[in-house]
Amino acid sequence: MTQQPPITATNPKTGISAPLPGIDTTPLPLAGRTPPPEFPADALGDLLGNAAKALAYHVQTPLGMAGQSVLAVTSLAVQGHVNIGKGNLGTSPTTLYCLTIAASGERKSSLDSLAMKPIYEYQAERRAEYENLLADYRAEMEAHELRHKSIVTAYKGKGKNQRPLSDDDQQALQAELAELERNQPTPPPRPHILMEEPTAEGIYRHLQEGEPVAGLFSDEGGGFFSGHGMEDEAKGRSITMLSQLWDAKTITRTRAGAGESGILAGRRLAAHLMLQPIIADKVLSDPLMMGQGFLARFLICSGESLVGQRLLADRPDDESAAREPAVTRFWDAIAELIRQPLPINDAGELEPEALAITGPAYDAWKALHDQIEQQMAPAGEYAGIKPFAAKAADNAARIAAVLSYAESRTEPTAEHIVRAAELIDYYLTVMVLRTQEATQHTAEHEAREVAEWIRQKGGKLRADDFKKLPAAYRKAPKARALLKLLVDYGHAVVTQENRKGEPSEWRMIEGPDNA
């Protein structure tokens, strides 16, 4: 039976609300957060794990956020080179989709700039080369057009000297022009491999005109989930395309306009999106994104905030991530991987090497697969997150391949599978917690934050002090709505009204079970 808010009555003279006598006044619980498990950085191995620890230390950011960043960057660099075979369950790309939940002020941008440094430097090099390549292309196109005119003139003549073509001349002209078109210059690929807020059309165009590998990376992932690509009329297209790319499927686009239709095969897209908790709640409770299995493809990370603990008093003034051996070793590895020539066929499509999970590694992976499958039963631990759990063994295989290829350019060993299993256990545990929390109303999370703030400031709030509330709640309509929820749920009482009869002062109710 659902617990109802405590029943109150308002004094008509004072306007003060109070519970009726004899009624249970125990406050209803507001949405809270269960502390997430500790991120298993050691499972990332020496190369990635030590880099994650060092970055977390120097940036003073949650370890899980750092681990997620280095894993996602490595997937971006590896995905074009290898696929991973899973016995009789087929082959998967080494593409990973990562989603990190972190509050404002957790230094997401600072971490991103360090973890992504080799990628940003690679893009800068490509930008510097692009103008020269574009100039060469334009010159080649001009020569191509002149050659086209020359061939036509040779057969038809020029000006007053033009003459009708015989059937033989017509066929010869067509053959020469066809050969010329087969050798038409192609423009240089786009210099960027990263995008932040694309639409489905933008992703298609990016992969069509750029390299066959790309990354959807943003330290402000809310911009993607609230951008044009996720508006109601576009959301379905974006979700479908991103799901197909995770699956390494061929992308088919059919449009009425000339040149707007086409087929893209052999493309890869890795992703890492960082979201604030309140946006993550909305995303994880979105029926379309959940129902189509889009979010189930993501590895979701959530860590305890370090805000308020990041003190400099005991730290040397000359510390720098750039002088940290674990970080520079990681940078060097990613820089080498991202510059390694891609296996591309004549059509510009990737043909990655096929790694395979075999022997003891395959036995370990099968055991992991079966363990997860059993926990998806109605009474199992993962019964409430079946879409995520159903893709967990696949994600584990991908992680193992990313780690093994980055470390030694070899197929995954049993040790890689064990490490990937530890990471997958973490991601599934986080998903169980986040799914439970996302079902609670977003307003309850906001009300909880307001209640905690008021208690920290002495337990009382006047309407004149709305401007002192956290920035998201300073507007009067928003603040009043959340305060009303706190009153209705028994966490606060109105202690004063203004001349219009509106509450103008609130007091938090103290008690061990509040908020």
Would you kindly provide a written description of the structure presented here, covering whatever features stand out?
The chain has helices spanning 45-59, 63-78, 108-115, 117-156, 167-182, 200-209, 222-225, 232-246, 277-284, 287-291, 325-339, 359-374, 386-390, 392-408, 414-438, 442-456, 476-488; strands at residues 8-10, 17-19, 82-85, 91-93, 97-101, 194-195, 213-218, 251-253, 262-264, 268-275, 298-302, 353-356, 460-462, 492-497, 503-508. The chain has 515 residues and is of the alpha/beta class. A 5-stranded parallel beta sheet has the order 6-7-10-5-11, sandwiched between helices. Helix 6 packs across helix 8 (232-246). The two termini are 21 Å apart. 37% of the residues are buried. The model is unreliable at 1-7 and 20-24 (pLDDT under 50).
Observed structural traits:
515 residues; alpha/beta; globular; disordered N terminus
Helix content: 40-55%
C-alpha geometry: globular
Percent of residues in beta strands?
5-15%
Structural class: alpha/beta
**Widest β-sheet, arrangement of strands:** 6-7-10-5-11
| Main pleated sheet | 5 strands, parallel
- Mean pLDDT comes to 87
Total strand count, please?
A: 15
Unreliable stretches: 1-7, 20-24
Radius of gyration: 29 Å
N-to-C span:
21 Å
How many helices does DSSP assign? 17
